[in-house]
Specification:
The chain is of the alpha+beta class and about 725 residues long. The chain has five domains: about 1-55 and about 700-725, no CATH class; about 65-195 and about 655-695, 3-Layer(aba) Sandwich (Rossmann fold); about 200-290, Immunoglobulin-like; about 305-550, 3-Layer(aba) Sandwich (Rossmann fold); about 550-645, Immunoglobulin-like (Sandwich), CATH 2.60.40.1930. It contains 16 helices and 37 strands. It has a nine-stranded mixed sheet with strand order 18-17-16-19-20-28-27-26-23. An eight-stranded antiparallel sheet has the order 29-30-31-34-33-32-35-36, with no helix packed on it. The longest helix has 23 residues, at about 1-25.
């Protein structure tokens, strides 16, 4: 009403103005046409305030239709649907798909089509594809089939949706329900399946590394989810294609997810296919998800390690022996002895590498009781070490000593890389009167670095049996963003808890480790080199892992995540070098991608001007399988580096998951209908029968904000302005 009143007043005012303008004009004929046009434009604009619509009525040409849409996705294979008594007197438990088929075949729907009252239309959706390459990305879209139904049907009386409510693609289903509401078509839903998860043990993930060193143990993390209502003791078995097997016994708590690891020793070069599995538990209904296969490559790597030290203390001597005797390590030592000068002999170098290309060959650098002064390191050399770690994925170990030289590093670029805060009042460290033990943290108990036992069960016993230490670095606390693997078992540091003594962190693309004691050599007592050699060998391999994922003479490639899934974005890093071994400053690096299906494309990697010969790029994984990567320097005769990225298949559709009737109930509520439980199916027929005849389909086009209306007004205003000029008006 207010719009009508205001519009009428505005029309009267415009009419008066038009009459006044007409009377003042000397050219009455042309002014009459002009003022009529002005008045018409005014009335047109005023009419838009009343929101006019163009109504088109489509009368039905067919009998009223009732559509039955049923879910044919993989999740409907879950066996947790109970047949109602009208379909089975025994009330059998069948799969959701069998429940749906029994329901479609029943005589329940005959009453709706009797005497030609209605036509019954049945449609399936989300059918699981037979092509293995498409199965991982196949899912359930509840919105699209409902919207498609509304678009194609003009005489729809009601719709019935049979589904478990599990959707993982498309728009939220409530958007389709709202369109049913606008069309005044009720949407009934019938849930299939149970709201509770099936009794099941599910091997959710196996996050194995892409490669390992031949002859060395690798740690393979895995995740198991239990939906059983009792605790289960089971045995995890890991078997390769040659029949070798390793097992581990663990207890799975009821209705919880368990994260654990198992060790595996690679004994051959090349790719090996492994399978992790565990036997079905009593009462488990879905044994198909109790195993997973994956691939690991064995490599005979040579890890280049540089050890820099001032005094040849016992830890340095035994560390040097451990690394020099490791067949997988190529060792270089630099000893700044304060009295005897530079150390010499096998594995020794005369000076710190001056050129970047000489330093860049090292995978791991170990800094002992060393600092910045005229006879040791310079600030420029510390900057180079930081660049090697952050830009080229090298590892850096801090091994402080009783001289306190590590405090001088706080004035260099290495300061941010040190993972702990030192106590400046105790620069020479803290001496114990009796041997103190190390205590593993929860992170340390699961870390490959601190895995000294042959099995996970033996590892805590090994650490409790290790000889203690008599000196430790003056550490106050660990910095934020670090991971503490071991602490002082007997000593705390103020309000910060136990003193952290083995601490790790990441820096750029590299890794950092701080070892706060210099008595690891004492671990040899009674067992010789077993634990001491194992620890430092694991440190060298852990730190150089990314750097050696795929390396050639002049290109090194690594990427994250290591085992992506379809839909993930992979970040790829490449370090390129010129013919002299220096980081590439001029030039381009390209990556040739070959998808599992055979399609290829080329990706130009972007150069990072702030890093040493570092190039990065990103690409999306759209299919599971083996992706072949080949990185090369453009217009260069350097041999490309080739590697294979394994994209693991993660199905969107899973069996054994609980049904989601809440989704179906909300859809029906919005569409002014209701969700019908299987035991109340006769009520559904009664409600549909009681529905009125569907109304003719009305198509309303709102003219008040239609593009054609706006265009017409602009055209008329332009015509009016031009006519004013011809009439001699300003």
């Amino acid at each position: 009403m207010p719009a009508l009143v205001l519009g009428s007043i505005a029309a009267v005012i415009i009419g008066i103005l038009c009459v006044v303008s007409y009377k003042r004009s000397p050219n009455k004929k042309r002014s009459l046409v002009l003022e009529c046009l002005r008045f018409f434009i005014g009335l047109l604009v005023i009419s838009l305030l009343w929101q006019p619509e163009w109504l088109t009525v489509i009368n039905p040409t067919t009998k009223p239709r009732i559509a039955i849409l049923w879910d044919d996705s993989k999740s409907m294979l879950s066996t947790d649907a109970q047949l109602p008594e009208m379909l089975s007197s025994k009330k059998e438990i069948v799969s959701r798909a069998q429940f749906t088929q029994q329901l479609l075949k029943s005589n329940l729907w005959n009453a709706l089509s009797a005497e030609g009252k209605n036509e019954i239309v049945t449609r399936s959706f989300a059918t699981h594809p037979e092509d293995p390459n498409l199965q991982a990305s196949a899912g359930t879209d509840l919105t699209a089939p409902l919207e498609d139904l509304l678009e194609k049907e003009t005489n729809l009386r009601a719709a019935v949706l049979i589904s478990d409510g599990d959707w993982n693609l498309g728009q939220p289903p409530v958007s389709a329900a709202q369109k049913f509401l606008l069309r005044k078509i009720p949407l009934f839903t019938i849930p299939a399946g149970s709201e509770k998860r099936l009794p099941d043990l599910d091997l959710l993930a196996v996050n194995a590394p892409t490669y390992g060193i031949v002859g060395e143990n690798i740690q393979i993390p895995f995740t198991i989810r239990s939906s059983l209502d009792r605790e289960v003791r089971t045995t995890i078995r890991l078997r390769d294609d040659a029949g070798r097997e390793r097992s581990k016994t663990l207890t799975l708590p009821a209705n919880k997810t368990t994260y654990d690891t198992i060790l595996w020793k690679l004994e051959k070069e090349g790719s090996s296919t492994l399978e992790m599995s565990f036997p079905p538990a009593q009462g488990e209904l879905v044994p198909l998800n109790n195993s997973r296969k994956f691939t690991i490559a064995g490599k005979p790597e040579k890890i280049r390690v540089l050890v820099v030290e001032s005094l040849p203390r016992w830890e340095y001597r035994f560390l040097r022996n451990a690394l020099s005797r490791d067949p997988g390590v190529e060792l270089s030592c630099l000893l700044f002895h304060p009295q005897l000068g530079m150390g010499g002999g096998p594995d020794y170098i005369d000076k710190f590498p001056e050129k970047i290309e000489d330093l860049a060959k090292y995978d791991v650098i170990i800094l002992g009781d060393i600092g910045i002064n005229s006879e040791q390191l310079t600030k420029e050399q510390c900057t180079s070490i930081r660049g090697l770690v952050e830009n080229q994925a090298a590892g850096l170990v801090f091994l402080p000593g009783p001289q306190g030289n590590q405090f001088t590093l706080l004035d260099s670029d290495l300061s941010d890389l040190i993972p702990v805060m030192f106590d400046a009042t105790k620069k020479t460290g803290i001496t114990e009167t009796s041997a103190s033990p190390l205590a593993l943290t929860s992170d340390g108990a699961s870390s490959l670095l601190t895995m000294l036992g042959d099995t996970e069960e033996d590892n805590p016993l090994v650490w409790r049996s290790l000889p203690g230490f008599y000196w430790h670095a003056p550490i106050e606390r660990a910095k934020a963003g670090t991971q503490v693997l071991a602490v002082h078992a007997n000593r705390s540091s103020g309000n910060y808890g136990r003193v952290p003594l083995i601490v790790t962190k990441t820096a750029g693309s590299g890794k950092i480790l701080l070892m706060g004691i210099d008595s690891a050599w004492r671990w040899r007592r009674g067992v010789e080199d077993k634990y001491h050699y194992r620890f430092w060998g694991q440190v060298a391999r852990w730190m150089s892992y990314q750097r050696n994922m795929a390396s050639g003479q002049r290109i090194r490639v690594f990427y994250t995540p290591e085992r992506p899934s379809p839909g993930d974005s992979v970040t790829l890093h490449a370090n390129a070098f010129d013919k002299n071994g220096a980081p590439l400053s001029e030039g381009k690096v390209t990556l040739n991608l070959t998808a599992p299906g055979g399609t290829t494309r080329t990706l130009d990697l972007a150069k990072d001007d702030n890093a040493w010969g570092s190039f990065t790029g990103r690409f999306a994984i759209d299919t599971p399988g083996a992706w072949k990567l080949s990185a090369s320097i453009v217009d260069d005769d350097a041999k490309p580096v080739e590697t294979t990225l394994l994209a693991q298949s993660v199905d969107l559709e899973k069996t054994g998951q609980p049904a989601r009737p809440d989704v179906l109930e909300e859809m029906s509520r919005i569409a002014r209908a209701r969700m019908i439980q299987p035991e109340s199916l006769p009520d559904l027929i009664k409600e549909i029968t009681a529905l009125p005849e569907p109304r003719p389909l009305e198509n309303r086009v709102p003219l008040w904000h239609h593009w054609a209306t706006i265009t017409a007004i602009i055209a008329l205003l332009a015509l009016f302005w031009i006519a004013r000029k011809f009439n001699g008006q300003i």
